[in-house]
Amino acid sequence: MDKINCFKNNLMDFNDIEEGALINLLARSFGVPLENGVLNFPAEIGSGYIRRLKINHKMQVFIRNFELKKERRVIRENIENDKNLIIIAFHNIFKTDHYKENNTSGLLTSKINLPSALISSVSLDREIILPAGMKTSSIVIAIYSDYLKELLNSQENSNLIQTIVSGEQSFLFEEIVSPEMQELAAKIVNANVPDQLQGLYFRAKAELLIYLLLVELLKRNETSLASINAADVKIMYRVRDKILQNINEPPRLEDLVLFSGMSKSKLQNLFKQVFGDSIYNYYQSFRMRQAADMIREERISVSQVGYIMGFSNLSHFSRMFEKHIGFKPKRYAQLSK
Prior knowledge:
Elements: E1 2-6, H1 21-30, E2 38-40, E3 46-56, E4 59-68, E5 72-76, E6 85-91, E7 116-121, E8 127-130, E9 136-144, H2 145-152, H3 159-166, E10 172-176, H4 179-190, H5 198-217, H6 230-244, H7 253-260, H8 264-275, H9 279-298, H10 302-308, H11 314-325, H12 329-335
Parallel strand pairs: 1-5
Antiparallel strand pairs: 2-3, 3-4, 4-9, 5-8, 6-7, 6-9, 7-10
Helix pairs in contact: 4-5, 6-8, 9-11
């Protein structure tokens, strides 16, 4: 594992968004130049690329599509200088069969493969881990809070939106990637746009991605939001991983309380704040999204999917599917053809 520290007195400050600090730092570490904003990984390091799209002085987009042979960690220093910077990331968003390796059921079982969309304050993004031997496929948008506030152009923001744009407290909110987000991501990655129109095109698509995420977040009804720290975030993701280790077994709250080291109330409140649902509902929603993916992508019959998901009663499976997906499974299968 290589560890890279970014200090203010170095030649480049990671927090200088105008210079695309991460991509520049990696380019120097690898000893390869950027070519038109693209870092192509040398074969001895891994494969793939990171592409930087400079939208304007308040927003940049990074497309990460690579696999490393050796884990690397980037430690961000002087984060307080960029406390108004917001990170919006869409992880594991490119469709891939990578998750099916050694998994005959085709089901996702961990956060490694979970397509997710999150928005967070930069203070919770101090350490970036680039894992080895795992496909990284992400679109990351770095945007300043004042610019996002200007885009929203509203005087009556919800408590959640106000938390995001105010810069007054640390936050992290995550959603499972929707099919619309995934389709839009594919358009961004595969776009062939004339040079003189790239700024216009990618700005529109990036703002649409942000819009799609905010639409999902605004479905939440939190009236109060607690400040969250990096240690809490790590615990939440460890709990989430444990829940999804075996989706055929519902989570036991008592076990998760012991596992997290938190009180029952703190665990439940923070989990819902970060992931937008209770622990049990999140688990069920994930199962049904997996079922929907199998119906849509693999053309498996509804009864087969219900059996794979561990349901002996297909009527129960149908009701649960409709609750979380919005359609009965047979209707969903017809719409997916």
